[in-house]
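Good morning N.,

You mentioned wanting to compare the apo and holo forms, so I went ahead and generated the holo version with flavin mononucleotide. This is what I fed in:
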Amino acid sequence: MTTILQIDASARVSRSLSRQLSRRFVEAWTAERPADRVIRRDVGANPPPAISEAWIAAVFTPEPERTDDQRAQVALSDELIAELAAADVIVLATPMYNYGMPAALKAWVDQVVRIGKTFTFDLARGDYPLEPILGGKTLVVLSSRGEFGFQPGGIREAMNQLDPHIRTIAHYLGVAEIHTVTIEYQEFGGERHAASITQADADATALARRLARGIARSAA
Ligand SMILES: Cc1cc2nc3c(=O)[nH]c(=O)nc-3n(C[C@H](O)[C@H](O)[C@H](O)COP(=O)(O)O)c2cc1C
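and this is what came out, ligand included:
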């Protein structure tokens, strides 16, 4: 059985294009592999809290020495990390907000990229002391944006603080391979936007089928 972690980060619960893509992807996946498990984590509707001084102190306190209050501080983080650790495929549906990720998604990242849980830190490694603990996961980034041209070579490549940030963080989530499907032109509307939606819907569906069938073949 494969486990999918579906993360939705749009603040819009209805009319969200990124949520439409994650729905398409998961529907196409489960049509191929109905017995697989899907964990849903809606950070757009229920944003995790921003980390605090008390949270940081708790995660740097060895587990057996944590007070009850410190255990409560890290309880949600433990739950989110358990979901991540269980996932073979992470389906991350996110809008671009102010050229980067929504604050709710960044709050999730801060809760899960955690010392001793998702990465180790050792100065003996020299200039790159952090190493991920998890590995082998596939990340599918399904995103939507109002403008266009954020891809490599596009007119807004330099303004894209979303995809490069996700790529950097993905290493610490244990991601081995990344696939991306994007809707553009939402703020312009018109034919370009309609064509972008049609293409992304088809790409998300085809990607889900291809990955699901690939897993079925490698398990055979
Ligand atoms: C608060 C906010 C900030 C946004 N910032 C940007 C932006 O920086 N660049 C952009 O291209 N679109 C921006 N947009 C447009 C969204 O990316 C677009 O509406 C997208 O479709 C939202 O995803 P959703 O449909 O899943 O809610 C912004 C929208 C909102 C609500």
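The two ends are 12 Å apart (CA to CA).

Happy to go through it together on a call whenever suits you.

Best,
F.
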